[in-house]
Amino acid sequence: MTYSFNSFYELIGHQGQKYKNKTALFVDNEKITYADILQRADAIAAFLVYHGVQKGDKVALFLRNSPEFVYTVFAASKLGAVVVPINTFLKEEELSYILEDSASTVLITSKIHEKVVKASDAEKLCNFIVWEGEAFEPLDEQNYSYDEAIRFDQSIKANTSGLEDTAVIFYTSGTTGRPKGAMLSHKNIFSNSISGIQHITLKTKDRGIIFLPMFHSFTFSIGIILPLYAGASIVIIKSLQPFSNIFKQTLLKRVTLFFGVPDVYNALSKAKLPWYFMWFNNLRAFISGAAPLQPKTLDAMAKKFKRAKLLEGYGLSEASPAVCMNTLEKQKAGSVGTALAGYEMKVVDENLVELPRGSIGDIIVKGDNVMQGYLNHPDITEETIINGWLLTGDMGYIDDEGYLFIVDRKKDLIISKGINIYPREIEDVIDGFEGISASAVIGVADEKSGEIPVAYIELDEGVEKIDDTALKGYLREHLANFKVPKHIYIIKELPKNATGKVLKRVLKDKLKKDEL
C-alpha cells in the first residue's frame, strides 16, 4: 500500500487546506468545517504541551460522541502522543485499571461521567483532567475546562510522527482475565481507510452517520478516520435517545452511509418508518460490523430498502479492525465477504497449515492492519501474531470465490461426545423461530457427553411466551439431535457489550452462580 500521510495530524493538516470550507462534521444544527477541526486541534495540542504532554504520552478519552473527541485525536497526533479511547459504560474500578495499565497522563472526559471519574483513581493516576461540556467545579491545577483548551491561543510546531508509530490503543473486552490494550499504528488505521475507500467506492460527496460509540475500534477507524481520509462528511449523533433522531438526521443531513451493528439493523428491519423517509432518503449502503447478522434481518432489510445494500463485514480490534466485507456488487447471505485490498486471509489447522476451500478451521489474517501487539504483554503478543499472521480466535471457512463464513469463536466451540458443535449454527436456527428476538448457546459440562448445548433466548418486544413444544419440534426438524439444546431458558435480556455482541462469559458465570 502507498500512504499519503504519516499521521492523523498530517491527514487533517492536508484536508484542512484542501477542503478548507467543506463541512466535515454535522452536529445537531452546527456545521464544522475541515479548517475548523484543524484550528481546534492546533489549540488543544498547544494547551496539552503547555501542561507538559510530550511525544509518546498517553491521552485517555472517556468521552461521549462529540466533536471534542475528534479534535483531541488530531491534537494528540500533532504531539506524537497516543490516544486511549475508553468504554464509557465501564465502572470506576475498570476505568482505573485501564488508566493505570496504559500509564495515561491525561484524561479527557465529560461532565456526564463525573460520578464514575471522581469515584475512580483518575486524579491519582493522571496529571490532569479536561472536562468537556459543563466543567467540573472547582477548576484547579488538575481540572480544566475544554472551553479553555479549545481557545488556547499559543501555537506549536508539529512533532514528527511516523507511520509505524503507535497512534491509538484499544482495550479489548477481556473475554478472559483483564482487558488487553491492542496497540495500533497510523499505518494500521490508514490501511483500513485506503482499503475501505476502494471496497465501498467512498467519494467526497458521501456522508456517514455515527451513533455507535466513538471509543469502539469499528466507529473510530471506519466511522471517523475513513470518511475524513476520503474528504467526506460525518453526521455525529451524541445520544441514542430518542432513537427516532437517528432517522431524522439521516434524512435531513442526506446521509449516504449508515454504520451500524446487528441489533440496530434488527430493529430497523421491523420499524415502521414514514413513507417520506423511505422515499426521500439518500442511503446507498448499510455497513454492519461487531457481531453476526441474523439471516432474517438480512432478508428483511433487502426487502425494505431496495436502493441501499446491507454489507456485512468482519474484523477485530487487533486488525484495526476491518478484515473483510461483502461488496456492493455481490453480497452472500451468511458470509462476511472477501478480504479488503492488501490483506490476506487463511483458514488453517492447529499446526497453521492451510486447509482446502470449504474446510472449517482457524481464521488467520495478514496485512498492514495487523496490530503492533498488546501493551505490556509481549508473551501474549508472541502467541497471537506468528510470522506476521494474526490468530483471530475465530473459526470458519472460505468458499471457492474467496468469501469468508464465520462459524464461531474458537473458545465457544462445544465438544459433545467428541463431536464439534458450533453454537452460532444453532443460534441461527433458533433466531428463525417466530417470536424470538435473539439467542445465545453455550456449552455446559456434562458427565456423559463432556459438554451439552444450552440455549438462552430473548423474546420479541410484546411477546410474553412461546410454545415450547413447537420450538423443540422446529429445532429437531432443522438440527441433528445432538445439536438440539438440552435446556432452553427464556431471559428478559441477553447480556451484551456496547456494540451489541452477546457476552457469553456473563451467561456462564451466572449459570455457575445459579442466577439464571
UniProtKB/TrEMBL annotation:
Residue intervals passing through the bilayer = 209-230
Taxonomic source organism: Sulfurovum zhangzhouensis
User: Which Gene3D superfamilies did the record assign?
Assistant: 3.30.300.30, N-terminal domain of ligase-like
Domain AMP-binding enzyme C-terminal as annotated: residue spans: 425-501
User: Where is the AMP-dependent synthetase/ligase domain positioned along the sequence?
Assistant: 14-375
Q: Which GO terms describe its molecular function?
A: ligase activity
InterPro entries per record = AMP-bd_C, AMP-bd_C_sf, AMP-binding_CS, AMP-dep_synth/lig_dom, ANL_N_sf
Query: Which SUPFAM superfamilies does the entry mention?
Result: Acetyl-CoA synthetase-like
Protein name in UniProt: Fatty acid--CoA ligase
PROSITE patterns on file: AMP_BINDING
Which key words tag this protein in UniProt?
Ligase, Membrane, Transmembrane, Transmembrane helix
